[in-house]
Automatic annotation (TrEMBL):
The lineage of its organism: Bacteria, Pseudomonadati, Pseudomonadota, Betaproteobacteria, Burkholderiales. Transmembrane segments: none annotated. This is Winged helix-turn-helix transcriptional regulator. Residues 76-88 have a biased composition (Basic and acidic residues). It comes from Paraburkholderia sabiae. Residues 11-88 form the HTH IS408-type domain.
Length: 88
């Protein structure tokens, strides 16, 4: 299930409230009008990107978005063929 994407303004507010103010996910969710799950996803994306709040505050919206949503890894080679496809 895909979660709704927040505007960069709200994403920055989520990150600020979490990392700078120490609010809990439910409190942040109420403040920005999102679900606690969505808030948690952005916090985890920030942690996976290895960014601190101080660094993220200096990035442009495009740079922050690129760090939070890196391209998927490229897989080399072919996918294995399913047994049904071989027999077909």
């Amino acid at each position: 299930m895909a979660y709704p994407t927040l505007t960069m303004r709200k994403i920055r507010e989520v990150l600020r409230l979490h990392f700078d103010c120490g609010f809990r996910q439910r409190e942040i969710a109420r403040a920005v009008g999102a679900s606690p799950t969505t808030v948690g996803q952005y916090v985890r994306r920030m942690e996976r990107a290895g960014l601190s709040w101080a660094v993220s505050a200096t990035l442009s919206d495009d740079e922050l978005e690129a760090r939070l949503y890196p391209p998927p890894p490229q897989v080399e080679g072919k996918r294995p063929v399913k047994a049904r496809e071989r027999a077909g």
